[in-house]
Amino acid sequence: MRSYNQYCSVAKALDVVGDRWTLLIVRELLARGPSRYTDLRSGLPGIATNLLADRLREMEAAGLVEREDAPPPIATTLFRLTERGAGLGSVISELGRWGVPLMSEYRPQDAFRGQWLRLPVRMFLADHEPDRPPVSIQVVAEDQTVVIDVAGGQVSLRLGAGPDAAATVTGPPPRILTLFSGNLPLAEAAEHGIQITGSQEAVRRVLPRSRQAISKLP
């Protein structure tokens, strides 16, 4: 492990997590929970398999990640964050908030994974009608599908399809982010390439009631 050789907590933290890909591995494990090596590879497009293996070994040595043997029928090694590693969750969240204005720099070649919507969902969406029955909203962005569950004042995201969802929101990732952040009115969504089928009331229930203090989203 390379070191800045500085007696400073910021420098010492970067000695551990400052290498390329390390914090993105933490992001994946926070979003997915315990994960197979192949799941991590899928969630980290562009990483070489030997580099991922190296980073996981370094993170294990630093006490951020541990391995566990999953029981049948999975019967494979899973990687999970330790308590120390999970403590980076607030760092990932604040880094994500800081980076939101940079999301205007969307390029068609940029990769996207459904679990990456977990932070925007937590940042922007809320259950504004907690006394109403639970609902689910399916989101389809490119070839990725996730489900937003809304119940009792809580909003959460899970991977996979939701065939019984009250509504389905389909569109390009940057447009969905613009909608979720409150910077695109629901009534204008279709004009910007977002298709909503099912209950628009279910979608309106979670959208911000005012524009967010961010600029130049695509």
TrEMBL record:
<feature type="domain" description="HTH hxlR-type">
    <location>
        <begin position="8"/>
        <end position="107"/>
    </location>
</feature>
<dbReference type="InterPro" id="IPR002577">
    <property type="entry name" value="HTH_HxlR"/>
</dbReference>
<protein>
    <submittedName>
        <fullName>Transcriptional regulator</fullName>
    </submittedName>
</protein>
<dbReference type="Pfam" id="PF01638">
    <property type="entry name" value="HxlR"/>
</dbReference>
<keyword id="KW-0238">DNA-binding</keyword>
<keyword id="KW-0805">Transcription regulation</keyword>
<dbReference type="InterPro" id="IPR036390">
    <property type="entry name" value="WH_DNA-bd_sf"/>
</dbReference>
<keyword id="KW-0804">Transcription</keyword>
<dbReference type="InterPro" id="IPR036388">
    <property type="entry name" value="WH-like_DNA-bd_sf"/>
</dbReference>
<dbReference type="GO" id="GO:0003677">
    <property type="term" value="F:DNA binding"/>
</dbReference>
